[in-house]
Amino acid sequence: MELVNQPVVIDNGYGIIKAGFAGDSVPKCRFPNYVGRPKHVRVMAGAFEGDLLIGPKAEEHRGLLAIKYPMEHGIVTNWNDMERIWQYVYSKDQLQTFAEEPVPLTEAPLNPRRNREKSAEIFFETLNAPALFLSMQAVLKLFLLRKEGINFRTSSEFEIVRTIKERECYLSVNPSKDFDPDADKRIYRLSDGTQLDIGQARFLAPEVLFRPGLIREECEAMHEVLLFSIQKSDPDLRKILFQNIVLSGG
After folding, report:
1. Residue 121 to residues 83, 101, 212, 225, 249: CA-CA distances in angstroms?
2. Which of 45, 126, 212, 218 lies in the 20 to 30 Å Cα band around 176?
3. CATH number for the 159-219 domain, one of 3.20.10.10, 1.20.1250.20, 3.40.50.1370, 3.90.640.10?
4. What is the mean pLDDT of the chain?
């Protein structure tokens, strides 16, 4: 039986945007959250419809396009492109019966109030959504983790680097041993045949989270931020918080 007023959930991730109807097991659409504009307009004249590409077509012709992400660190910085992407989600190519459904939309932690107001303006005035609910991605991931145990994947402009990171990087339990340049030689072959020596980078990249000084960053390490946050909480809750640490995102 078809549900009436079935909310449309939009996970507005920095790298990947996903959208679908609440209650469905999988999203109806999932594609990189970027737009692509032709690099050489004269050469490509007539090849594409419109001034930009979004979704699968942008992925297909990525090599011919100048790729732009409308978000930085989870915060929308280019509202024109973001609005075009949301309109594409609403299009007949993605979800067709969409206009009268309420929309839960994910947002990053510390999303500025003005950004929330702008999101509401677009969904109410342009996309004609009857209701909008904004919720932090991290909180929703905790609910989903408890229910399904799903592993979340992300992508970004540096897709090749992210692929290498996801396939090859690891967190070393003994950095001093792994730092030996002769201990671990590792060659990674790109799709075009290029070979990269990623030996020490495999553990040094994630090690930055715990030793920011490796890249000359003067900031707290991830475990220090976590410890500081828990210590600022109610003393009676600290033990429980230490026993319930969940790592999500990427």
Report:
1. 11, 16, 39, 35, 27
2. 218
3. 3.90.640.10
4. 80
